[in-house]
């Protein structure tokens, strides 16, 4: 009997959003195994993709990124969990903080597993790209060789960002069934889902900026954190980029 209770709480059941898995949260059953499963999914998926993320630049950067991507996912949940719980109360959904955090962890876990599943494909793409020229280290961006490596770097970086963004939307969208089950309202589920995606996206962009670089441009040696990023923010960078600065 005990074994059957824990059977629905698996990574496969979580990705499929099986009725039994959804029912566990709605009825308050097996929340501890669900938490452990979600955390395991986040660590497995983000570790695999994090390594691929930094692999083009250098093996050391792959190690740094493999450590930072799981940290990013967990920090997004920690930073936006309280906000999302407060918004749920304001919108009329009486959800406890632990329920909101668990829902967010499940959404992040599905996202992470999607990234982990795509990591071999992305690794193949990265392996076919021209490797960074070690001779451009420390050169200015207007150098011909440096500009060539920077061009490859930008393509790979944009590709990674696009893949993570799409997987993030898909992973969190899978939460709809669970939110509907705990709120009992389809309309409320859509409102909460869209609100949570916007909040998590806003927080995630800034946290990812602070934890950068994940890929590291070829003009600088591999490093964990760029202190210059603490002097501005993600949205300021995008604004200046749109202005061509």
Name the structural class. mainly alpha
Number of helical regions: 10
Radius of gyration: 20 Å
Structural domain tally: 1
Give the rounded overall mean pLDDT.
Answer: 87
Q: Runs with pLDDT <50, length 5+?
A: 1-6
Largest sheet: none
H/E series, N to C? HHHHHHHHHH
**How much β-strand is present in the residues?**
under 5%
Count of beta strands: 0
Shape: elongated
**Termini gap:** 64 Å
Q: Which bin fits the share of residues in helices? A: over 70%
SSE order and pairing:
Layout: H1 2-6, H2 11-16, H3 19-26, H4 31-55, H5 59-90, H6 97-128, H7 144-173, H8 176-183, H9 186-210, H10 234-242
Write structural notes for this entry.
It is a single chain. The N terminus is likely disordered. The chain has one domain. Helix 4 crosses helix 5 and helix 6 packs antiparallel against helix 7. With 245 residues, the protein is an all-alpha fold. The protein is elongated, with a radius of gyration of 20 Å. The chain is built from 10 helices and no strands.
């Amino acid at each position: 009997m005990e074994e059957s209770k824990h059977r629905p709480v698996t990574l496969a059941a979580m990705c499929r959003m099986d009725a039994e898995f959804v029912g566990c949260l709605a009825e308050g059953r097996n929340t501890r195994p669900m938490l452990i499963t979600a955390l395991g999914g986040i660590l497995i998926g983000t570790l695999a993709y994090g390594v691929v993320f930094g692999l083009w630049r250098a093996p050391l950067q792959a190690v740094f990124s493999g450590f930072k991507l799981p940290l990013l996912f967990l920090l997004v949940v920690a930073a936006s969990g309280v906000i999302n719980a407060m918004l749920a109360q304001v919108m009329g959904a009486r959800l406890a903080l632990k329920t909101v955090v668990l829902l967010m962890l499940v959404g992040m876990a599905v996202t992470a597993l999607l990234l982990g599943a795509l990591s071999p494909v992305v690794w193949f793409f990265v392996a076919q790209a021209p490797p960074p020229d070690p001779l451009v280290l420390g050169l200015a961006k207007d150098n011909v060789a440096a500009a060539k490596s920077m061009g490859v770097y930008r393509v790979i970086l944009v590709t990674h960002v696009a893949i993570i963004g799409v997987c993030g939307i898909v992973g969190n969208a899978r939460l709809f069934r669970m939110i509907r089950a705990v709120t009992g309202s389809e309309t409320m589920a859509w409102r909460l889902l869209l609100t949570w995606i916007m909040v998590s996206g806003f927080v995630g962009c800034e946290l990812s900026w602070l934890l950068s670089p994940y890929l590291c441009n070829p003009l600088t040696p591999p490093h964990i954190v760029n202190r210059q990023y603490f002097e501005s923010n993600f949205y300021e960078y995008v604004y200046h980029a749109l202005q061509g600065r």
